Amino acid sequence: xxxxxxxxxxxxxxxxxxxxxxxxxxxxxxxxxxxxxxxxxxxxxxxxxxxxxxxxxxxxxxxxxxxxxxxxxxxxxxxxxxxxxxxxxxxxxxxxxxxxxxxxxxxxxxxxxxxxxxxxxxxxxxxxxxxxxxxxxxxxxxxxxxxxxxxxxxxxxxxxxxxxxxxxxxxxxxxxxxxxxxxxxxxxx
Length: 189
Description:
By secondary structure, the chain is an alpha/beta fold.
């Protein structure tokens, strides 16, 4: 089996997620090619792949422009492969936070679904398999202005606001279960 993983990222968490998927699938003896879509400048050999995964981070409520462009250009091929879609956002961390008030979790879940719905409208792609994924807060990597903005966004989403450290919010176990399930579906078809 041969799988393509396409990602778009700003601070690198979605790249880490793509690399994690690659490692997880390789342990299952699956051949994986990982592509940062901003570096894709030629045609993709779509017939070489049995499945695909698209992972895009969200910033200021929108998925990466380069991923929107890539999906628009390759929608038909992604549909042919029943590609899965991972939407990586800070809002998902709020939706998953068991300590958050139910209203806050519901608001975060609604925000996440709204971002996914906007992506679908912008690209015309209706992925069959979607997983919202919590990202990260690498405060130490932000400049002063971005750190200030991200702290405000984090506060609104119930995420950590101590800017003296970085936070890994991705639920790797949930991600692994989703990827393994999608692999089983692909093998069964």
